[in-house]
């Protein structure tokens, strides 16, 4: 799996337009340096996703977001076209697929997932912080599809 992760990250880094342009103009050393830096950064994002119990990927009509706490990584594309998020999901990070949800306003007004462990008491507002498992319950009730469900006995 490690080789596959590195292969995907390397391919993604080499596909960036600036890196391709540097290769085209003959500046191979600079292109390789930037690609290695990009791969190291993305590996850091994957480590953060795997080490943070409240990290998750959300995918909706507006794109895909990898939620890592104070950092988010996003792309205006479905999770299938976002290699970093796809890798995180393949490595076990929960995915909340919001595309089936028709009531987007209610979804947006859900409380936020806590990243530091502090949880606000009920009643919750849109600015409250709740555990990931509670957020999964609430979003699933709205019609979201959950992949890599960390709740006992529900993994898909």
Describe this structure in words.
The protein is an alpha/beta fold. The protein is elongated and about 60 Å long. It starts with a helix and ends in a 9-residue tail after the last strand. It has helices at 2-14, 17-24, 28-51, 83-90, 104-108, 132-141, and strands spanning 56-60, 63-67, 72-75, 95-97, 112-113, 129-130, 145-147.
Largest sheet: 5 strands, mixed
The percentage of residues in β strands lies in 15-25%
Number of strands: 7
> What order do the strands of the largest sheet run in, or round the barrel if closed?
3-2-1-4-7
Cα radius of gyration in angstroms: 18 Å
Overall average pLDDT: 90
Counted by DSSP, the helix tally is 6
Helix content: 40-55%
Secondary structure class reads alpha/beta
Shape: elongated
SSE pattern, N- to C-terminal: HHHEEEHEHEEHE
Residue stretches low in confidence (pLDDT < 50, at least 5 long) are none
Distance between the termini: 20 Å
List the helices and strands and how they pair.
Blueprint: H1 2-14, H2 17-24, H3 28-51, E1 56-60, E2 63-67, E3 72-75, H4 83-90, E4 95-97, H5 104-108, E5 112-113, E6 129-130, H6 132-141, E7 145-147
Parallel strand pairs: 1-4, 5-6
Antiparallel strand pairs: 1-2, 2-3, 4-7
Helix pairs in contact: 1-3, 2-3
């Amino acid at each position: 799996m490690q080789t596959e992760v590195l292969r995907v990250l390397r391919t993604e880094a080499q596909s960036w337009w600036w890196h391709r342009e540097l290769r085209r103009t003959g500046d191979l050393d600079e292109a390789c340096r930037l690609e290695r830096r990009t791969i190291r950064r993305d590996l850091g994002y994957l480590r953060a996703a795997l080490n943070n119990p409240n990290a998750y990927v959300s995918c909706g009509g507006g794109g895909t977001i990898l939620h890592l706490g104070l950092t988010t990584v996003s792309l205006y594309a479905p999770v299938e076209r976002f290699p970093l998020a796809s890798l995180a999901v393949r490595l076990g990070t929960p995915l909340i697929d919001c595309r089936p949800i028709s009531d987007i306003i209610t979804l947006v007004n859900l409380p936020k997932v806590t990243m530091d462990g502090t949880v606000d008491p009920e009643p919750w507002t849109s600015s409250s912080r709740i555990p990931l498992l509670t957020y999964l319950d609430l979003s699933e009730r709205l019609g979201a599809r959950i992949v890599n469900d960390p709740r006992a006995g529900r993994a898909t």
